[in-house]
């Protein structure tokens, strides 16, 4: 994958430098130790944080908070083989920054994507989103794997669970894999 560069200023600091996006385009990757926050609190009306409509992208170490709709959307039949790991959706890890719908939406035939993973640091944190942590919807949205994630209230919190569901599958989404019996591949759902 090609790396994506972020210019960071103010109180937020990147913990590792990022190289520029290759002029040829192609899949994007953001990896590193620190979280880069994508905050939609200034958006008016509808809007999501990031939409992926292509194959083989890797998103890691991002925080998606305060978007009117979804933090991250993976959409369409070309959205295959994407990996989302080590991200926060609807929270900074200590408090809520709820997205207006779900933290993450897979839809419209998105296939074969991995949300989380079975090794340490690959799971995502979903907490406090207005609808669900993760939503999978639409015919053809299949063979996606959701594993190793924490979904629901933050540890020790009495609030912060999603208003509707931790994981919501509907409208024809089928043959998706939620958790696994491999070590580290189970999701932790609280509420």
Could you list some keywords that capture this structure?
globular; seven-stranded parallel sheet; mainly beta; six-stranded parallel sheet; single chain; 191 residues
Radius of gyration: 15 Å
Order of helices and strands: EEEEEEEEEEEEEEEEEE
Write out the strand line-up for the largest beta sheet, numbering strands in chain order.
1-2-5-8-11-14-17
Structural class: mainly beta
Given the structure, what is the number of helices? 0
Measured between the Cα atoms of the first and last residue, the distance is 36 Å
**Strand proportion:** 25-35%
> Poorly predicted ranges (pLDDT <50, ≥5 residues)?
7-33
Strand segment count: 18
Global mean pLDDT: 83
**What is the percent of helical residues?**
under 10%
Shape: globular
Largest sheet: 7 strands, parallel
How would you describe this protein?
This protein is an all-beta fold. The protein is 0% helix and 30% strand. The strands form 3 sheets. The protein has a 7-stranded parallel β-sheet with strand order 1-2-5-8-11-14-17, with no helix packed on it. Strands 3-6-9-12-15-18 form a 6-stranded parallel β-sheet, with no helix packed on it. The radius of gyration is 15 Å and the shape is globular. 39% of the residues are buried.
Give a short overview.
This protein has 191 residues and is an all-beta fold. 0% of the residues lie in helices and 30% in strands.
Write the SSE topology:
Blueprint: E1 2-3, E2 28-30, E3 36-39, E4 50-52, E5 58-60, E6 62-65, E7 72-75, E8 83-85, E9 88-89, E10 104-107, E11 114-116, E12 125-126, E13 132-137, E14 145-147, E15 150-151, E16 165-170, E17 177-178, E18 188-189
Parallel strand pairs: 1-2, 2-5, 3-6, 4-7, 5-8, 6-9, 7-10, 8-11, 9-12, 10-13, 11-14, 12-15, 13-16, 14-17, 15-18
């Amino acid at each position: 994958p090609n790396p994506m560069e972020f210019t960071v200023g103010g109180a937020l600091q990147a913990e590792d430098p990022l190289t520029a996006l290759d002029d040829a385009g192609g899949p994007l990757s953001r990896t590193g130790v620190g979280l880069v926050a994508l905050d939609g609190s200034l958006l008016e009306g509808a809007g999501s944080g990031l939409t992926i409509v292509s194959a083989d992208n890797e998103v890691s170490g991002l925080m998606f908070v305060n978007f009117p709709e979804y933090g991250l959307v993976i959409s369409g039949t070309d959205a295959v083989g994407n990996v989302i790991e080590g991200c926060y959706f609807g929270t900074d890890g200590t408090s809520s920054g709820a997205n207006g719908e779900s933290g993450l939406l897979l839809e419209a035939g998105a296939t074969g994507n991995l949300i989380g993973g079975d090794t340490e640091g690959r799971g995502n944190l979903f907490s406090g989103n207005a609808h669900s942590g993760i939503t999978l919807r639409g015919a053809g949205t299949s063979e996606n794997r959701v594993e190793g994630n924490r979904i629901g209230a933050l540890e020790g919190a009495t609030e912060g669970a999603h208003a509707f569901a931790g994981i919501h599958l509907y409208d024809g989404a089928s043959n998706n894999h939620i958790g696994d019996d491999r070590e580290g591949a189970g999701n932790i759902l609280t509420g």
